[in-house]
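SAMPLE LOG
Freezer: B-3
Tube label: C17
Construct: single chain, 185 aa
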Amino acid sequence: MSKRFLIQLLAATALFATVQICHSDPAPDLTGMSLDALLRVELPPLSSSSAIVVSATAVESCSVETSDLAFGAYDPLTPVATDALSGVVVTCTPGVVYDVGLNAGAGAGATTAARRMTLGEKNLIYSLYRDTARSLPWGDQVGVDSVAGVGSGVPVNHKIYGRIPARQTIRSGHYGDTVVVTVYY
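STRUCTURE (predicted):
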């Protein structure tokens, strides 16, 4: 038997005894075993492990999509208001409480109750509402004249009800305005 083989055998025996001690099992008495028996002793596999901490922080998030509101042709001589419908689609992460606000628009002197489409210096008054009866103006004051919702992770369509009052004295032409939609969350 070579000297190197005996050193390996002793190292294996010591390792086996160490592993057994680490596992709180009593080490078997190897002194009485034959060389043949020692070579057949199965040593437990050695391993070392550690844990990886995996984390992520989900943030509250909302997105908004709008569609243009087109009143079409407005006849100032017609005795009834001209109505139109549009929408704001809001998608927020589940549980996010949000409000959708519409500003007064870009027309000089506009308010959220009486917005102004313009053609040069001429104005065509119109309003945007939160309800089908067109009685609740839609503005941008959270908790006052905005539209509230709670995110569910799926898109929610909030309808915008537009109205141009009848019999406005205006000249013909294409009037326009830009209203900014903001989602507060």
